[in-house]
Design brief:
single chain; alpha+beta; eight-stranded mixed β-sheet
Length: about 280
């Protein structure tokens, strides 16, 4: 995926998560490691996967593959009959596990004690086409039932969950404002991608240091802040955070979607949503 594609995907994920405003998992409990959200139950994950396996959903994923991710409102040289044939030939099928997607929690950013680092915003199921295209189908629970809300190109959600599991376990989560994927393991926040390595260094940081870091980045941009009320949407430079000196590397460049926490998202992300997604909307 190109840098532009990753940036658009990051902005869209932040926007969707903010718009949903849903926490699929309860807050961390006594049985969870420090800072980790309580996991979704096997029954919840099975329900989410069942929603994706619905033939009507798979048919829509087939059209997503046929259109190469171009949304229904976008221009396409493919005719309706040709699209239908390509959608059937895509033969979409699920692969891998359905996983909860955890996103940096606004309460953690605000500096609250004892709260999990992230919350589950939606679940993701990876679907592949006969020609090798991959998509991530997102589901949320509404009114006691699991419903598909979006299709995203690529399979980052499942890939990073699998990477965290194979590397020693822990909770994979995203800081969508900088498109960074981390794993919380044994009280440390460790990087899973290049953006995360630029953020916390190759060796990661303690959970407390990471909380200080994201509070510095976004603490004045939370819902209800002056930044939020002003509707500001520009990028801003990130300074090196706690424990960065040992990790080396340069500070992150200016980013957008910095305020996409809780109910706040940048207006600019809307254009990325229209360009990057062929949405399956509830």
């Amino acid at each position: 995926m190109t840098d532009l594609g990753r940036a658009r995907r990051a902005a869209v994920t932040a926007l969707l998560a903010a718009g949903l405003g849903l926490a699929l998992a309860p807050a961390a409990h006594a049985g969870s490691p420090a800072g980790a959200p309580a996991p979704l139950s096997a029954a919840d994950l099975a329900g989410a996967r069942s929603a994706v396996q619905d033939q009507a959903v798979l048919d829509r994923v087939g059209h997503f593959f046929a259109r190469r991710g171009v949304p229904p409102t976008g221009q396409l040289t493919l005719g309706a009959a040709e699209e239908a044939r390509a959608a059937g030939a895509a033969a979409p099928r699920l692969t891998g596990d359905t996983v909860p997607v955890y996103t940096l929690d606004a309460a953690f950013v605000a500096g609250a004690a004892g709260v999990p680092v992230a919350k589950a915003e939606f679940t993701a199921s990876t679907v592949v086409a006969a020609d090798g295209q991959t998509a991530s189908v997102w589901t949320v629970r509404r009114g006691g039932a699991w419903r598909v809300v979006n299709i995203a190109s690529g399979g980052d959600e499942g890939d990073y969950a699998a990477k965290a599991a194979s590397g020693g376990g822990g909770t994979a989560f995203r800081e969508p404002q900088v498109n960074a994927w981390y794993v919380l393991r044994d009280g440390r926040v460790l990087p899973l991608d290049d953006e995360a390595r630029r953020s916390v260094g190759a060796g990661g940081v303690s959970l407390a240091a990471y909380q200080q870091l994201v509070h510095q980045r976004y603490g004045d941009k939370l819902p209800g802040s002056a930044y939020d009320r002003a509707g500001d949407g520009g990028g801003y430079p990130l300074a090196a955070g706690p424990e960065r000196a040992a990790g080396g590397g340069s500070a992150l460049p200016a980013v957008t979607a910095a305020a996409a926490l809780g109910a706040t998202a940048l207006a600019g992300a809307g254009a990325a949503l229209r360009r990057r997604r062929a949405g399956v909307r509830a």
